[in-house]
Amino acid sequence: MSAPIIEKTPSADSQTGTKKVFVKTYGCQMNVYDSQRMADALAKDGYVETSSMDDADMVLLNTCHIREKAAEKVYSEIGRIRMVREEKRAEGGDLMIGVAGCVAQAEGNEIIKRAPAVDFVIGPTTYHRLGEVVSKAKTGKKVVETEYAVEDKFEHLPAPAKKVMSGRGVTSFLTVQEGCDKFCTFCVVPYTRGSEVSRPVSQIMDEARRLVDAGVREITLLGQNVNAWHGVGSDDREWGLGELLHKLAEVDGLKRLRYVTSHPRDMDDALIEAHRDLPVLMPYLHLPVQSGSDRILKAMNRKHTGDDYRHLIDRIRTARPDIALSGDFIVGFPGETDQDFEDTMQIVRDVTHAAAYSFKYSTRPGTPGAEMPNQVPEDVKSARLQRLQALLTQQQKDFMQSLVGKHMDVLIEKPGREAGQIVGRSPWLQPVICHENVGQVGDIVNVKISQVMVNSLVSDEIATKLGQ
Length: 468
Ligand code: SAH
Ligand code: SF4
Ligand code: F3S
What we know:
The chain has 468 residues and is an alpha/beta fold. The protein contains 17 helices and 22 strands.
């Protein structure tokens, strides 16, 4: 999945007398999507979501294994939850603790050994069995469900009620592909999410229509390698993501489409042309290159060069000139020299990004990178990351500044933090603070940008109102 690494807790939907689950999500957008699907599965057994551990009957941690820090966080969190459970037990209550997500898949039984307070562990391919797992755990048995499922979990996962869907806002994720066969030598995902699986067209279309019917106006298609999605189309021909986007664009009421995360090797002609031909497809692409050094790209098993990437970007920009790019970068991969790092700086200067995520290489057990000689010292990684981030931050600022004075369509998403404000999203993903009179949640409105705040844009109307 793509880079935005988040910690998110859902909003409460408390009702007295029902069982409550507190789901805490780490990691990528797919975990956000999965957390909702797990909440939907638990709803069948009478659980409602709560945003506080204090009134929860169950805590479900949806975890991320991508870097050591992300994985370790889970254990300190379990320690904290255990304390809450002690308090609850002292008062005659209880708290079930479940671990899902990529740490669950990667560590399985080890989690119970290291953190015996955990009641159950469930891997991402088996979320449709969550109800059974919870029932077993309730008998006092420790349950570890991490065998890769052969059946299609999506067929068995219940769809949420329309009311629940509506409460989740006007933008939504929709997983279309899961797993990865690329085996980049630094990455755990092929081991935690299994091999690439594409959801069938009919399933995706049904879910998209349900979302739109519940008020969703923008859908972001998700996959660890979303542009590796393929399937048999409604015309009985083999489709790729480009064709799927065309089909989704026909859904009445759906105003915006995005997809994340893509691999440069899977950007085929049909997908590039979709950026040219589909107005609903937003002009924004997260296309990680990781490094600008051909030597390092080879060692990472990315199977393309820096110039391959530059040419690809040229083609995409020719198809859609206003497209903004974002990417992921790793510094300090084993063997990375000063010159290799300079090559990364150069590709960043050549390509220019509207946003980007950059990380110090983190050694992951079981990946080929962990066995490689010439691991880069921590202080060298830190110094490189600092230089790279300074450049990327400057590019992000320049991009945002370039929008000042321009008119753009904004999808209104939610009320603002202050009275009189409403917040929308630009085609390039920046939040746009608008005057509440410009429209209602779910509307697309055209506003002029008058200034930039740190991570958001301010529309002319609100700036005037604020007397700026
Ligand atoms: N499927 C996505 C990657 C998901 S992981 C893709 O192919 O783009 C998100 C990002 O985390 C990766 O793009 C990479 O930049 C970073 N990452 C993955 N493994 C890492 C590691 N071992 N150390 C540091 N960063 C890593
Ligand atoms: Fe990881 Fe590479 Fe697969 Fe992305 S393409 S999930 S970075 S192995
Ligand atoms: Fe996503 Fe982290 Fe797993 S980035 S796929 S939750 S390892």
